From TrEMBL:
Residue span, Alpha/beta hydrolase fold-3 domain: 91-298
Entry superkingdom: Eukaryota
Pfam families linked: Abhydrolase_3, Ribonuc_L-PSP
UniProt organism field: Fusarium oxysporum f. sp. pisi HDV247
Keywords associated with the record: Hydrolase
A GO term for molecular function: hydrolase activity
The protein, known as: Alpha/beta hydrolase fold-3 domain-containing protein
């Protein structure tokens, strides 16, 4: 089959699997012509999944997760009748629906069997949808849910070495964004990411997007419609974040292994292939499966032979990835900076008005911090850039500076400053070469762009150990 494209000439379409073709003809859903129509479509999906609720082996708990500015509803799935004493794997599952529809149950059957097979704990958050919200909000909602998981390891006996994120379609795109955010915020650490037919790129500049401009089911115009609602004015302003559209990300290094799959007959096919290729380019392991004849979501919604095979393959990867690991991973937990700052509401920061204040803000620091004397002052000693084995990081200056901040955070937490770096109002940095200060500022801005404490930078002739380039101390107040 071919379609006409005035710019590219005729574009041929890969054939659908015969079983899928027979079903997909009945699944066409027109794009909503108004917000009211979209809200009606949402209402159709509000019912819960009774197949999971009625499963005699699964317990479902309703919880609320503290987000940036509201409580996020979520459900937690655990195995009924108690668990073994062994630590359990956990999955943060993000539903599909174009980020404009869907609920905590959509696609959940793809991972719910792991509750019974591996005694896994599954958290599915009801992140906020567009056009009610735009841009980073849904990503931050899901990151807050990941943080909640990391804070409740003991409650559910979760193994910190087996914390995974998974998503379907739009949820898979958000999962990729949350994984990038967790890397850049230095935690929580994920062991793997499962991205099923992920919605990753808002630009639609590839062959599969052109191939499926017309069609049934989920086709390219549906994707454009969803992205327009998700991004709002960001498209015109050219300010689309790679956390929102991970297909735009240039650096995918230091991410956990990924499983990515798609159908050959869907508009997301080529952006998914490109993302897997970029992961390989950046030295990250990725399993990529493109199922011949599959449309978007074919394995989740259509009972076909190819769908059953795709589910079996994905499930085998999940079980293999979540099997108990013998080497422990020390959990390193960091909350979103905007959330963490609320844990020290009595500390206020201010800038001198005008260009000087703008300069300090660009450094990621403030002119002054006002701290009421109504608690305990916590002061760390100078912290070097050591790794978790107690060895000085010498790989490069940036890595040493990052390790130095890790050590400062660990010291603050040891001093009962649970918020870590964001709970501190003052930092003092000692440089062997003061010219390294701009790099340190850059490392700080990448790590906590919203937190602007006071900074003091001091040049010294040498530090305690040969090879050290920086040492940082911090101050925080524990309020009564």
């Amino acid at each position: 089959m071919a379609i006409n494209d005035t710019d590219m000439g005729p574009i041929r379409l890969p054939p659908y699997d015969p079983e899928i073709l027979a079903i997909e003809d009945t699944q066409h859903r027109p794009i909503p012509s108004s917000l009211d129509e979209l809200l009606e479509l949402r209402k159709e999906e509000l019912q819960r999944d009774d197949s999971i609720y009625n499963d005699p082996e699964i317990d479902i708990q309703d919880i609320n997760v503290s987000g940036l500015d509201c409580e996020i509803p979520a459900i937690v799935l655990t195995r009924k009748g108690g668990t073994t004493s062994e630590p359990r794997p956990s999955i943060l599952f993000l539903h599909g629906g174009g980020r404009v529809m869907g609920n905590v149950y959509v696609g959940l059957a793809a991972v719910s069997e792991l509750v019974k097979d591996l005694d896994a704990v599954i958290i599915s958050p009801g992140y906020r949808l567009s056009p009610d919200v735009h841009g980073m909000v849904s990503v931050e909602d899901c990151y807050a849910s990941l943080v909640w998981m990391s804070q409740n390891l003991a409650t559910y006996n979760i193994d910190p070495a087996r914390l995974m994120i998974a998503g379907v379609s739009a949820g898979a795109g958000i999962a990729a964004g949350v994984t990038l955010l967790a890397r850049d915020r230095k935690g929580p650490r994920l062991c793997a990411q499962l991205l099923a037919c992920p919605m990753l790129d808002d630009r639609f500049d590839n062959l599969s997007s052109r191939q499926f401009e017309k069609g049934r089911g989920f086709y390219t115009p549906w994707g454009r419609y969803a992205w327009k609602l998700v991004l709002g004015d960001d498209i015109e302003r050219g300010t689309v974040s790679h956390y929102v559209a991970p297909g735009r990300a240039q650096d995918l290094s230091d991410l956990p292994p990924a499983y990515i799959d798609a159908g050959s007959g869907e508009p997301f096919r080529d952006e998914d292939i490109a993302y897997a290729t970029k992961l390989w380019e950046c030295g990250v392991q990725a399993d990529l499966h493109v199922w011949g004849g599959g449309c978007h979501g074919f394995d989740l919604f259509y009972p076909t032979e190819i769908g059953a095979e795709a589910i079996k393959t994905r499930y085998a990867w999940l079980k293999r990835t979540l099997r108990e690991r013998k080497e422990p991973i020390i959990p390193f937990i960091v909350l979103p900076s905007t959330t963490l700052s609320s844990t020290t509401p009595l500390v206020t920061y201010a800038q001198v008005p005008g260009p000087l204040g703008d300069l300090f803000q660009s450094f990621g620091s403030s002119h002054v911090a006002k701290v009421p004397l109504s608690g305990s002052l916590v002061v760390t000693s100078g912290q070097p850039g050591f790794d978790r084995d107690g060895q000085l990081v010498t790989e490069c200056l940036e890595k040493e500076f990052e390790a130095c901040l890790d050590c400062v955070e660990a010291a603050l937490v040891a001093g009962s400053v649970k918020a870590g770096l964001v709970g501190a109002h003052k930092f003092t940095a000692y440089f062997v070469d003061i010219r390294h200060e701009p790099l340190m500022q850059e490392v700080w801005r990448k790590r906590l762009p919203e937190h602007r404490p006071t900074w003091v930078s001091i040049g010294v002739s040498q530090l305690a150990m040969p090879g050290m380039h920086i040492e940082i101390s911090a101050e925080a107040v524990l309020f009564k």
